[in-house]
Amino acid sequence: MRHHRTLILICHGKTERDWDGDDLARPLRGSAKRAAQKFGAYLLEHDIDCPFLASPAVRTRISAEKAAKTCNRPVQRIQYNKWLYRPGLPEQLDILSRHLMRNDLIYFGHAAALQDLLLHLVGSTVAGDFGLGRLAKLSIELDTQAGRVADADLELMLSDTDLPDSFPYPVPGAAERRPRPAYYYTQSGVVPYQLTDTGARILLITSQKRQRWGVPKGICEPGLSPQVSAAKEALEEAGISGPVSDHALGRYAVSKWGAVCYVQLHAMRVEEELSNGEWADNGRMRAWHAAESAADHVYHPQLSSLISGFSKSLSYRG
C-alpha cells in the first residue's frame, strides 16, 4: 500500500558575516528573517497547513519561528530534531519518512543537507539549483510497508525574491497589503503598578531611543493571549513580572510600519523587578511615578488618558 504526501523544504537564508562563535548559534541576517516571513505568507496564502520540523540550529529555528508566526501558528508547535543538524542522508530519510507516514510536512534545514536530499529524491539538476533562501515543494509517494519514500516529484521551486515584499492584511487574499505580516499590527501592553504604604505608583519606561515615556508593549504573538503576550513584553522590556488582569483597560492606536497598530492595555500588579544587571533590555530607562502624576509624563495622548483613568481607579483601592 502506498500513501501520497506533500513535503516542503525550506532552506534558511544568509547568516551574519564574520561570525566567530559556535556554528550552532550562527545568527541570521535581517534579510533572511524577512525571507522566512515571506515563505510563511506563501504557506498561508496557499492554505498549506501541516506540521513544521526543523534543525535546532539558531538559523533554522528562527526561520521556522518567523514563518510560523506569519502563518498565525504558535511557535510552541514547531518540532525540532537534533539529528537534523549536519545530518547524513540516511538520517534525513529515516526522520522524514517517519513524519511523512503520519502527515504532510514542512522541513526547515541546511543547504548542504537539503541539496543531498534533493539529489537523492529528484536528481542533480534540481539539487544544484537549490540553496539559501529557497523553497521546494515535492509530491512524495510512500511505501507504507517498508516505511520509506518510494518516489518523489518536484512540483515547484522558488526563491524568497520571487515572492511579494508586502503581506496581505488582515487575512489571506485581502486587497490591502502592508509592509509587515498582519499579526504585527495587533499589540498588547501593561500598565505596571504597585500599592505601597505611601500610595499607588505606576512604572513607566522609555522607548528604545530614550525619547518618550510609555509602558511595556509589543506584538501579540500568534497562539498567545493578549495578557500572556503583554506579560512576556513586560519582562523583556521592563524586567518586571506579576499577575496581569483579564479585564482590558482599553486600547490606543500607534502609527507604525506604514499603517496603524492597535495596542490593548491590561493592568499588571508588579511582584518582582529585576536589577539592572539581570534586566536583558536595560538599554531603556524605567521610573516609578505616583499614580496621580504618571500620565503627565506620557507623550502619547490616548495612552496618557488610559493611564489617567486607571490611576483614578487605583486611588479607590488605596
Protein topology:
Blueprint: E1 2-11, H1 30-45, E2 52-54, H2 58-70, E3 79-80, H3 89-100, E4 105-109, H4 111-122, H5 124-129, E5 134-143, E6 148-159, E7 167-168, E8 177-178, E9 186-196, E10 199-206, E11 213-214, E12 217-219, H6 226-238, E13 240-241, E14 244-256, E15 259-269, E16 272-273, E17 286-290, H7 291-294, H8 301-317
Parallel strand pairs: 1-4, 2-3, 2-4, 9-15
Antiparallel strand pairs: 1-5, 5-6, 7-8, 9-10, 9-12, 10-11, 10-17, 13-16, 14-15
Helix pairs in contact: 1-2
Textual characterization of the structure:
The protein has helices at residues 30-45, 58-70, 89-100, 111-122, 124-129, 226-238, 291-294, 301-317; strands spanning 2-11, 52-54, 79-80, 105-109, 134-143, 148-159, 167-168, 177-178, 186-196, 199-206, 213-214, 217-219, 240-241, 244-256, 259-269, 272-273, 286-290. By secondary structure, it is of the alpha+beta class. Helix 1 packs across helix 2. It folds into two domains: 2-162, Phosphoglycerate mutase-like (Rossmann fold, 3-Layer(aba) Sandwich); 184-317, Alpha-Beta Complex (Nucleoside Triphosphate Pyrophosphohydrolase). It is 29% helix and 32% strand. The strands form four sheets. Strands 9, 10, 11, 12, 14, 15 and 17 form a seven-stranded mixed beta sheet that branches. It has a six-stranded mixed beta sheet with strand order 3-2-4-1-5-6. Strand 14 (244-256) and strand 15 form a beta hairpin.
